[in-house]
Amino acid sequence: MTAGMVLCGLVIGCDRMPDPPRTADSQVPKALSVAPNNEEEAAAVLTAEKARVNYRYRLVVIQDYYRKTGNVDKFRWTQEEMQNLAQAQTFTWEGVPEVLSPKGESLANADEPLLIEYVVGARREYLKAIGELLDFYKRTGVNSYKAQRVANVIQRLDPVHNYKYLLDAEIPPASIKPIEVIPQADKMFAQAVDLYQKGKGFLHTFVTTDYNKERQALLLLLDLIDKYPRSTKVAQAAFYIGEIYKEYFNEDVRACQWYQRAWQWDPAITLPARFQAAVVNDLRLYNRAKAIELYRQVIQHEQFNSSNVTFSHRRIRELTGS
Questions:
Q1: Are 213 and 84 within one domain?
Q2: Is residue 5 one of the residues assigned to a domain?
Q3: What contacts 274, CB < 8 A, 6 or more positions away?
Q4: Is there a contact between 158 and 84 (Cβ–Cβ < 8 Å)?
Q5: What is the pLDDT of residues 41-50, one digit of tens each?
Q6: The pLDDT value given to residue 5
Q7: Angstrom distance (rounded) from CA 175 to CA 138
Q8: Which CATH number covers residue 214?
Q9: Which of 82, 99, 193, 209 lies 20 to 30 Å from 240, alpha-carbon distance?
Q10: How many CA atoms lie within 13 A of 237 on its CB side?
């Protein structure tokens, strides 16, 4: 058994979902049954199942749209979100009618914003329905184990892999003016950076990464920018959002957009936002023209890191042949 496997067993060194809870006899049932003649439970379960099936259907439709239009990045996002949904619920329901997905709809003259609206709405309805199902079990005390399994579904729905599919809808505009010192925002930023650093683990490699801490840091930074867009910390927060997306969640397109916001919100930022965006475009996204442009910006604006400037000069020579 490798060290990495041992560490994964300790929920360190890999990004794994919370395990389903076990029953008193250490079992993890593959099916849960609605109590006979409990109409309230049946209705709550059926509502959640209808919402789940509709959410998946809306993802299938928009995935087909991105397949047909050749948008590779957004197609991958649909794959990530569908996998996230599929892995969340580790059991089936018995005692309620089977919910079937609708037939596929025509994508002739499809409108992307409308398809996105359907996905986001279906996701919202599913999260609401599964939350209400959990509330039902907590309120009635019908079955504590069912409550644990439904709670586990919610825990396994990773918010990192929920997408708005239009970056303008996901990321605040470049016009933000971070000019206010806001103590609460400063506190949130310090907490997030502390989580980010601790999440790296003692070796600062993937082997010791605590992905839960990195996820908490990410959500805290996003919340900071949402609540306090005029805080003097938003540019730095954007940089660290880019770092977390890039290093831990394989979200290179998103990362580059957040790096860009970092220097747009603070052109004099002393964090290597332009350099990181250049490297991602160069070595991960293979957008060499954009990489060259960004390496030149590094040389102009990021003299505070001499090794990055040296690397940028070298890569420009290698990519341009001059």
A1: no
A2: no
A3: 259, 263, 294, 297, 298, 301, 302
A4: yes
A5: 999 999 999 9
A6: 39
A7: 45
A8: 1.25.40.10
A9: 82
A10: 30
Q: pLDDT tens across 81-139, in order?
A: 999 999 999 999 999 999 999 887 788 888 999 999 999 999 999 999 999 999 999 99
Q: Are residues 212 and 87 in the same domain?
A: no
- What is the rounded distance in angstroms from the CA atom of residue 312 to the CA atom of residue 314? 5
Name the β-bridge partners of 31. 92
Whether residue 7 has pLDDT greater than 50: no
Q: Does residue 119 contact residue 56 with C-beta atoms inside 8 Å? A: no
Whole-angstrom Cα distance, residue 68 to residue 82? Answer: 18
pLDDT at 2 over 50: no
Least confident of 204-213, 223-232, 289-298: 204-213
Cα–Cα distance, 241 to 196 (Å, whole number): 10
Q: Same domain, yes or no, for 164 and 216?
A: no
Q: What range does the domain containing 66 cover?
A: 16-169
Q: Does residue 174 sit in the same domain as residue 212?
A: yes
Q: How far apart (Å, rounded) are the C-alpha atoms in residues 146 and 134?
A: 8
Measured CA to CA in angstroms, residue 232 lies from 22, 129, 181, 184, 276 at distances of 47, 38, 6, 11, 21
Are 94 and 145 part of one and the same domain? yes
Report the chain's terminal Cα–Cα distance, integer Å.
49
Q: Which parts of the chain fold into alpha helices (H)?
A: 3-9, 39-69, 72-88, 112-140, 144-156, 167-170, 183-199, 211-227, 234-248, 252-265, 273-283, 288-301, 306-320
- Which amino acid is residue 97, in one-letter code? P
- Check: CB of residue 185 under 8 Å from CB of residue 220: no
pLDDT-above-90 percentage for the chain: 87
